[in-house]
Specification:
globular; 2 domains; 10 helices; Metallo-beta-lactamase, Chain A
Length: about 300
């Protein structure tokens, strides 16, 4: 699994930071978290394939998080995409996308599947390999954070045992690896055995907390996360402004990471007033030692 920061600024783009967008790449499948202005350029710069984009997870409808959507959707059309695209966001995301499509006088050659969030959020998708969760945050408009959580994976495949039992290579090997099936009476009457390792490998959990004041759901989404990505718009000396604009300071974001028990905390969504992020890092590090500050193009690899 890889996490790629496509944009780490807030409100307005700057020469240093693009508008908010984070890509999670899992086994070739791409989850795009928010889609600020210009995201399609950053997506292309990172050599991500349009055909691999499966999920668009939009936190809220403020412009710096959605103004890149029309361009991205048009680029998908120009690439002759045919696979459905899942779009998840607060109520109004469907209207926003379809209004843009109508005014651009175009149709898409691929289906759009919308999930509009309301209330406190909840489980958005529960599939065989991963779960997507959403949680309501505390911002000026309906805003949701997300967590992409893999389910436990089987242990390493015992190739030697499979060959000794004369299990033919191919689909059956994959079935044994992913499902941990037990074969009985394989080969020369040898007794069956589980060919996948007995101990499952825990799946990774990546949480994304966009614009918000500190709130309970931010910690719930980030609980035990391998990586918690959290907005940190202001330094601590601008706490009053953070409260007025319903954002977090770096210290508050670090406190959320600590209370959530996140293994790794990466801060993003910095105000354009900050050129040198060193003071912000030092401030947050006093609360969450080892905190990281995202930059456009930063890639974090898990399990690679």
């Amino acid at each position: 699994m890889r996490i790629i920061f496509l944009g780490t600024g807030s409100a307005m783009p700057s020469p240093r930071r693009s508008m908010p967008a984070v890509a999670i790449v899992r086994l070739g499948e791409v989850f795009l978290l928010d889609c600020g202005e210009g995201t399609q350029f950053r997506y292309r710069d990172e050599h991500l394939r349009y055909s691999r984009l499966r999920w668009l997870l939009i936190s809220h409808l403020h412009g710096d998080h959605v103004l890149g959507l029309p361009g991205l959707l048009m680029s998908l059309q120009m690439s002759e995409r045919t696979e459905p695209l899942e779009i998840v966001g607060p109520e109004g995301i469907r209207e926003y996308v379809l209004a843009n499509r109508r005014l651009l006088r175009t149709e898409f050659g691929y289906p759009l599947v919308f999930t509009e969030l309301s209330g406190d959020g909840g489980v958005v998708y529960d599939g065989p390999e991963y779960v997507i969760e959403a949680g309501r945050l505390h911002h000026g408009v309906p805003t949701f954070g997300f967590a992409v959580a893999e389910k436990d994976r089987p242990g390493p495949f015992d190739v030697a045992a499979a060959r000794a039992l004369r299990v033919p290579e191919g689909p059956l090997w994959g079935q044994l690896q992913h499902l941990g099936h037990e074969l009985v009476g394989v080969g020369d009457g040898l007794p069956g055995r589980v060919l996948a390792g007995d101990e499952a490998r825990p799946g990774y959990r990546v949480a994304y907390v966009a614009d918000t004041r500190p709130c309970a759901n931010a910690a719930v989404l980030g609980r035990g996360a391998d990586v918690l990505i959290h907005e940190a718009t202001f330094a601590g000396d601008l706490l009053s402004e953070a409260k007025a604009k319903q954002h977090c300071t770096v210290t508050e974001a670090a406190q959320v990471g600590l209370s959530a028990g996140a293994r790794r905390l990466v801060l993003t969504h910095f105000s354009s007033r900050y050129v040198d992020l060193g003071p912000l890092r030092r401030e947050a590090d006093e609360v969450f030692p080892g905190v990281e500050l995202a930059a456009d193009g930063l890639t974090i690899s898990l399990g690679e």
